[in-house]
Design brief:
The protein is α/β, with parallel strands linked by helices. Helices cover 43% and strands 14% of the residues. It contains ten helices and ten strands. It has helices spanning 32-44, 55-68, 84-97, 124-145, 179-204, 222-230, 233-245, 250-253, 255-262, 296-310; strands at 6-7, 13-14, 23-27, 47-52, 73-78, 103-106, 151-156, 208-213, 271-274, 284-287. The strands form two sheets. An eight-stranded mixed β-sheet has the order 5-4-3-6-7-8-9-10, sandwiched between helices. Helix 5 links the parallel strand 7 (151-156) and strand 8. The chain is globular and about 50 Å long. It starts with 5 loop residues before the first strand and ends in a 10-residue tail after the last helix.
């Protein structure tokens, strides 16, 4: 703990005892929730590494933040979560350039898109949302373990995880594909991974905490990509209307991630989301994810399968 400022559950910056933030990595930092979180951390005085698939868009976002926050300390580096070689290259670059990492925000993602595959042959949503972040976390974990004090890994999930089912016989949706079922599976995998990682941290008495969160319904480009890729003008229009009428802002949608990353009450293994109407909006609070997300046998099996698929292992003991 230190006397730095912290980001509260209302998104404000206040003084007081808090988690000490020095260096942060945020995936998908150039837009939406990642962009808003980057601004908040930069205003706090942290150095933020903006891990972006497009460095051009990343640099544009960086300049926008620097215009608003002249003292912002930001670095843009390429990271394509749909390519495990890119994930490994990013981690190699980071660990050669930095010897500490206080917060890793596994934030980037895709939602409800037509079926396609990553560079490594994975169903795209499962590959990007879960396997890419699983591999990134494994690569960066050694530097987090050597960081003085406490580090945190915050993995962005979704309330749609409630729709998810982990079917190990058709993990990549090769037999059948529904874009929302696939998205739900990837988001359930995010939570299973978070909880299993937390259990392994506790078994090893590590100085790293694993937390998951969801933004409720926040207006970002995420909702538009599926209709755009499908060429559906009607669905695109409907999503734009919902984003305008129903959703909270991207800034508010980033609150659960910021709360999970900075609040001193976080113990590890929490699921954070908006506490307002139907958990779609409002101030963050600790919530309960769906019952099957706490299935330790499924989590352990998913962990083993994920290590095999990504060829990334964690130097952490399995929980008893």
């Amino acid at each position: 703990m230190s006397d730095r400022k912290r980001i509260t559950n209302s998104g404000d910056i206040v003084s007081g005892e808090t988690f000490d933030i020095g260096t942060v990595v945020i995936t998908g930092a150039n837009s939406g929730l990642g962009f808003e979180a980057t601004k908040a951390f930069a205003e706090e005085g942290a150095h933020v590494v903006m891990a972006c698939r497009s460095t051009e868009r990343g640099e544009d976002a960086k300049q926008e933040i620097e215009h608003e926050i002249p003292a912002a300390s930001l670095t843009v580096h390429e990271l394509d979560l749909a390519d495990l070689d890119s994930v490994a290259a990013f981690a190699d670059w980071f660990t050669s350039a930095y010897d500490e990492l206080d917060v890793l925000c596994n934030n980037a993602g895709v939602m409800a898109i037509p079926r396609k595959e990553t560079a490594d042959g994975f169903e795209y949503q499962f590959g990007v949302n879960h396997l890419g972040h699983f591999a990134l976390t494994g690569h960066l974990l050694p530097v987090m373990q050597q960081t003085p004090g406490e580090s945190r890994i915050v993995t962005q999930s979704s309330s749609v995880h409630e729709r998810g089912v982990i079917d190990f016989d058709d993990l990549q949706h090769e037999t059948s594909y529904d874009k929302w079922d696939a998205y739900g599976r990837s988001k359930l995998a995010n939570i299973l991974f978070t909880y299993e990682l937390d259990r392994r941290f506790r078994a090893s008495d590590a100085n790293v905490k694993s937390v998951t969160c969801h933004p409720g319904y926040a207006a970002t480009n995420l909702q538009l990509r599926g209709p755009e890729q499908e060429g559906s003008r009607l669905r695109l229009l409907a999503m734009r209307v919902l984003n305008t009428v129903v959703a909270q802002s991207a800034e508010q949608g980033a609150w659960p991630m910021l709360y999970a990353a900075t609040d001193p009450s976080i113990d590890g293994g929490e699921y954070i989301g908006p506490g307002g109407f139907r958990n779609l909006r409002g101030r963050p609070e600790v919530q309960e994810s769906i019952e099957r997300s706490y299935d330790e046998e499924t989590a352990r099996r998913l962990w083993t399968v994920s290590e095999t698929l990504t060829d990334v292992s964690f130097d952490l003991p399995a929980p008893n």
